[in-house]
């Protein structure tokens, strides 16, 4: 029997994926510029000296300029590396380092692997999302990597999801394993949605 929550998630993801694919290159460039500005301000406001982030794909709000700028300013940036067991390893970002295609076809660093617990030592987590609702519930892309990571952390750092402005919505379908985030970063604003951890 079909699960209505899974069906609702699938339908919303398909709509969001299509909307992202229709964005022009100019809109993508503007979004990346806005995301970089917002993330730089968030790092400054939180005093973070170590963050986790990710390398955006072509259709995601761009994080690559932020990652490069942060490492150049001496901020330690950890990037996720997918594992077959559904967990994430981490590697320290190197602007000149080699990138490889990860398990899911996404760009990942080829540097030395740190284990899954390495992310517990960052001051701020910046993660991808398909959408986030106003209670902080995050809709991911269905593989559960970040839900598992956040769910396994006690007293973890503040977690902010990066989405386009239209992807901060009133409500997303949720299941028992889904983990909320404390805030959202869009190209035009940063919104704290729930009390931050740590």
Automatic annotation (TrEMBL):
Give the highest taxon in the source lineage: Bacteria
Cofactors required: Mg(2+)
Q: Does the keyword Phosphoprotein apply?
A: no
Q: Show the catalytic activity.
A: (6S)-5-formyl-5,6,7,8-tetrahydrofolate + ATP = (6R)-5,10-methenyltetrahydrofolate + ADP + phosphate
Q: Does the keyword Metal-binding apply?
A: yes
Q: Which UniProt keywords are present, listed alphabetically?
A: ATP-binding, Magnesium, Metal-binding, Nucleotide-binding
Q: Might you give the EC number(s) for this enzyme?
A: 6.3.3.2
User: Entry's Pfam families?
Assistant: 5-FTHF_cyc-lig (PF01812)
Matching entries from InterPro entries are given as:
FTHF_cligase (IPR002698), FTHF_cligase-like_sf (IPR024185), NagB/RpiA_transferase-like (IPR037171)
NCBIfam families, A to Z: MTHFS_bact (TIGR02727)
Task: Name the protein family.
Answer: Belongs to the 5-formyltetrahydrofolate cyclo-ligase family.
Can you say what this protein is called? 5-formyltetrahydrofolate cyclo-ligase
The organism's taxonomy opens as:
Bacteria, Bacillati, Actinomycetota, Actinomycetes, Micrococcales
């Amino acid at each position: 029997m079909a699960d209505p929550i899974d069906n609702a998630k699938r339908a919303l993801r398909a709509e969001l994926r299509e909307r992202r694919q229709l964005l022009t290159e100019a809109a993508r460039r503007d979004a990346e510029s806005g995301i970089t500005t917002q993330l730089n301000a968030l790092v400054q406001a939180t005093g973070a000296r170590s963050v986790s982030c990710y390398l955006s794909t072509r259709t995601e709000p761009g994080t690559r300029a932020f990652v490069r700028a942060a490492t150049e300013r001496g901020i330690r940036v950890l990037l996720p590396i997918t594992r077959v067991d559904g967990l994430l390893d981490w590697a320290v970002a190197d602007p000149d380092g080699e990138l490889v295609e990860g398990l899911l076809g996404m760009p990942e660093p080829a540097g030395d692997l740190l284990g899954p617990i390495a992310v517990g030592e960052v001051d701020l987590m910046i993660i991808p999302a398909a959408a986030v609702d106003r209670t902080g519930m995050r809709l991911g892309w269905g593989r559960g990597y970040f839900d598992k990571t956040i769910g396994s952390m006690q007293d973890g750092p503040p977690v902010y999801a990066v989405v386009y402005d239209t992807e901060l919505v009133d409500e997303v379908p949720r299941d028992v394993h889904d983990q909320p985030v404390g805030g959202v970063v869009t190209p035009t604003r940063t919104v704290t949605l729930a009390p931050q951890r740590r």
